Amino acid sequence: MKKYLCLGCGFSYDEARGLPEHGLAPGTRWADIPEDWICPDCGTPKSGFEMVEIPYWSQA
Amino acid sequence: MNIRFVLRAGERGFSRLVSTGVNATYVAGHPDGVITRHSSFNFHEYQSGIAGFGHIRVFGDEVFSPGGTGYNMHPHHNFIIAAFVLGGALTHVNTIGKVDELRAGDYYVFSAGSGGKHAELNIGQEDLSVIYLWVLPGKLLAPPSYVRSHFDTKVGADRIVCLVGDEAGALPIGQTIKVSRLVTGRSGTPVYRSSPAHGVYVFVLEGEAGIAGTVLGRRDSMALSGEERIEIAARSGTDLLLVETAL
How far apart are CA B183 and CA B209, in angstroms? Predict the structure, then answer.
């Protein structure tokens, strides 16, 4: 399970958590999200996200 | 000395944002308001350059015209955004509850963390010149924070002063990042001491500096890595920023 960060605004997508409020169930792989999907906060295209390996603050 | 890249002023991405049309809600100001943005790294519509360096993703050299021009309130997560005001006055408003005004030498570090909005406005009567630095955070969805400080060019002249990072007197930042500034009143060769495991991005605001055999003029920049000592042959009247980052 990987995490992706929007380079337009910093919005993060976590495959494990999904985005149920935007129709993406927990466990939805990044590769399975449509190519025309955009950042729900700023509209940056999917190609403008970067895979990151950054832990959550709450796990510190 | 490992030179990762040299980026001349004119090679950077360039955007001219106006407060009408497609950006009418994003860009504040009257219809003649203009923001110019020179980007050292890929950002928004500029995607043909360098993607980033270490934790750095955005280095924007921006000018806002007077009369309310800027960015209206808009959302962020995670990114740590720092602003360094070079001239004019910046009004910063954020959802942590801070309304701030920053002038030449003032700077802030805003960590958007678990979610925060901000507006960046020039409500003054002269152009606002500001450098925006965005870095990836050390932790995702941290509590948002805002801190600010001031660099005094008179007190800090002719030596390298740490503005942001893990040093006494510098603003803290939740990442392996250090931002320093050098302003010279006389020519000299100060030495920046870096961790050899890190990279250093050098951006010349004004004047001229020679580093590792490369001469950088106004708004030129370069990135180096693997060095403990970086000698900066700076002319009198030089003003530059150094951003050290883990790689």
Answer: 11
